[in-house]
Amino acid sequence: VRAYIDTIPDDLKGAWTYRLKGQISGKEGVAYIWLDPAVKVPTIIVLPETAKMTDSIAFSIVGFKPFEKLKLNVLNPNAISANYDGTILTGAGGGVLNFIVPTEDFISSPSFQVEGRWRYSAIAVESANRYATAYFNLVNNKG
Which residues pair with 20 in a beta bridge? Predict the structure, then answer.
């Protein structure tokens, strides 16, 4: 697939149109994307908000300083902290994307593989008053 942008404005905020064309099939598609201003305060966006134990859960961490070291913390519904991932470094824009698959990342501690509301936090190592927290739900794989 070949993708291209119709125009590149001076200000990157606003509506964008991506046009896609299959190089073999010749089929065309269009994707419309909206860009908001950069996030200025630490924020975490979780997708999906409800997942099965075997699902990959994405955490989009934004609003931190460029190349800032963050400590990640996962707290299960029983208020037990995993601190599973040590630290992670943000990119040039002050954000980073992280993923968790509960049955893979918590394999050494099956007690973490519990249903309910979980908490995910990112804390700036150099300044603990700069942090973000998000919540997500884990459900049984049979559900």
Answer: 3, 29
Spatial distance between the Cα atoms of 138 and 79, rounded to a whole number of angstroms:
14
Instruction: Tell me the pLDDT tens digit for each residue of 91-124.
Output: 988 999 999 888 887 766 666 678 899 999 999 9
For residue 93, how many other CB atoms are within 10 A of its CB? 13
- Between the alpha carbon of residue 95 and those of residues 22, 67, 98, 132, the distances in Å are 32, 8, 10, 12
Cis peptide before 48 (omega within 30 of 0): yes
Closest by CA to 114, choosing from 133, 135, 141, 134, is: 141
pLDDT digits (tens, 9 = 90+) for 7-31: 455 566 777 787 888 888 888 888 8
Residue 40 CB coordination number (10 Å): 9
Integer CA distances (angstroms), 47 to 37, 56, 86, 113, in order: 20, 9, 21, 18
- In sequence order, which residues have a C-beta less than 8 Å from that of residue 82 and are 6 or more positions away? 73, 74, 75, 76, 106, 109, 112
